[in-house]
Design brief:
Structural class of chain A: alpha/beta
Distance between the termini of chain A: 57 Å
Oligomer: homodimer
CATH superfamily of the largest domain in chain A: Periplasmic binding protein-like II
Order of helices and strands of chain A: HHHEEHEHEHEEHEHEHEEEH
Strand content of chain A: 15-25%
Radius of gyration of chain A: 32 Å
Helix content of chain A: 40-55%
Chain lengths: 293, 293
DNA sequence: CCATTTCATACCTCTGAGGTATCGATCAGC
DNA sequence: GCTGATCGATACCTCAGAGGTATGAAATGG
């Protein structure tokens, strides 16, 4: 039994006439009759009640017809879809991103990509930058939005946006009165920042910035998520330097201020060059449109 | 492409080794490699990324693997099921029955049959006896529970139960005082009965019973359903002779009484001899157990 | 009763699936 | 860096089986 036999069977079940069914299959009647007989023999049951004048489906035949139609339909669709998946028009794409990208470029990227590739299912994975890098290398992600400048192994990369650090403090904090803050203003403050194990890019930038006048920064708390940092600052537990893109709509009681010579960093789309998912190139095309605009 | 090719593909996708996959398919490696190449050629896409050392699935291959597994599983199940359907162990059986059988033998019949043939889906069709006969002949029903004595064409028949007519009247009706009623008691009453076009068996029995002393019965109302008849009697619109089996739990305000020399009739299971549904014989086996007990 | 229709059977041909031998490339170990 | 081992690809051969033609057998209709 193979798909050809199933097509023969369906043809006969639909026409109930050996000659017509054989013609539909582009063959002559005798070998067609033999194939039907062979099907019934291998399946071990009569599918047609027939004499030299009439052909009718048996109960088993009716049931098998339903199944054959379903199987053939899915089979044909699968064969057609292979090219679509291979060309990247259809399929699945696992996209990782760090939380602070969720509020800037990721929504735009996802929207543009979904328009360009509506049949590719985007699986979004929010992770911290170090996990993202590991997952990219292991192939558990096809692409990711994260900080640029990673010295990682063969990653194809394109710039999505640039971001810079900005100060957030409680509304009644003494630094809230300043128009712009500098490194010396932060010297005596309790700083809140994610540990280097989570996002080395941000942590290094903050440490270097604060340390520039020779003062060792005091990191009071070290949560993993930028959102937690904002909440803790709002609770009056310290101040923080966070990406500007996260300052758009701060909670009540928080204010943000620019800082002098604010460290900048790239937000990039990257994919392991080894990732052979054909849905990825279109993502880079969209990303370049975003980064260039 | 046929199912054999799909099995080859799945074998290679699971082992990622041409030699091992070929062995699993009980063949040697060279023709196996050729078949894989042929699959990729006909599908128009690479399914495996391979060199002389490593074999890996492409994105298209991963997608196709899912589809192949699903298709093969359903295909194999369909082939297996053919014998089961042909032997009557699995499948579908359309069973018609008249409403007054619903409260006597049908529940028992359905329960016993479902125990004997759990994989046969019973499709129950409540119809009036005349429709049942027509549907049986046309093959729209495989079997049915209806009144016996039909002179219809080649119907295989077995007795399920015997029923007799019984009188129902409102609780405060003058006939409610009698222990047992005779034809003469009914002479001046407004009778409610289904028309002959719905159930000739009952209608004839009632007319003959009432007419026996030479009195023409007065049929006040002629609804199609026995349940409607009971409701109308409860509303005081007349009295009725209905099958005893429907008198089990009458509504408040109704009482039933036996009648002298009550007409009896058979309730039978019947199937068109032409019906070739292999699930039917087991139904008759169950029915004979019911009828004999 | 004969012509016609329709499925089944007999016999032939040839495609293509599978086998064996072998090549070419890659990797491990000395 | 050389050598043997491993593994997929290629070349060539064989034969099962799918399809073709001719024809038989049964049923229907005029």
């Amino acid at each position: 039994m193979d798909t050809r036999h199933m097509r023969y069977f369906v043809a006969l079940a639909e026409t109930l006439h050996f000659g017509h069914a054989a013609a539909r299959m582009n063959m002559s009647q005798p070998p067609f009759s033999r194939q039907i007989a062979a099907i019934e023999k291998t399946l071990g049951a009569r599918l047609f009640e027939r004499n030299s004048r009439n052909v009718a489906l048996t109960a088993a035949g009716r049931h098998f017809l339903e199944e054959c139609r379903a199987v053939l339909e899915r089979f044909d669709a699968a064969c057609r879809d292979v090219q679509l998946v291979a060309s990247g028009v259809k399929g699945e794409l696992k996209l990782g991103f760090m939380m602070n990208a969720a509020y800037s470029v990721v929504p735009a990227l996802v929207r543009l990509y979904s328009e360009k590739r509506p049949d590719v299912r985007l699986v979004l994975e929010e992770r911290i930058p170090t996990d993202i890098e590991e997952m990219l290398i292991e192939g558990r992600l096809d692409a990711a939005v994260t900080f640029g400048g990673s010295p990682a192994t063969h990653l194809r990369t394109t710039l999505l946006a640039r971001d810079r650090l900005r100060l957030i403090v409680p509304r009644d904090h003494r630094l809230a009165k300043l128009e712009i803050a500098g490194p010396t203003d932060l010297a005596s403050e309790r700083l809140i920042a994610a540990p280097a194990s989570v996002t080395p890019t941000l942590r290094d930038a903050i440490r270097n910035y604060c340390a520039s006048p020779g003062v060792v920064p005091h990191f009071a708390l070290e949560p993993r998520l930028q959102h937690t940092i904002i909440r803790l600052v709002a609770e009056g537990l310290g101040i923080a330097l966070i990406p500007q893109s996260l300052c758009a709509d701060l909670a009540e009681g928080l204010v943000s201020r620019p800082i002098l010579d604010a460290p900048e960093f790239d937000i990039v789309l990257c994919a392991s060059a080894a990732s052979s998912n054909p849905a990825v190139p279109a993502l880079f095309e969209v990303a370049e449109r975003l980064g260039g605009g």
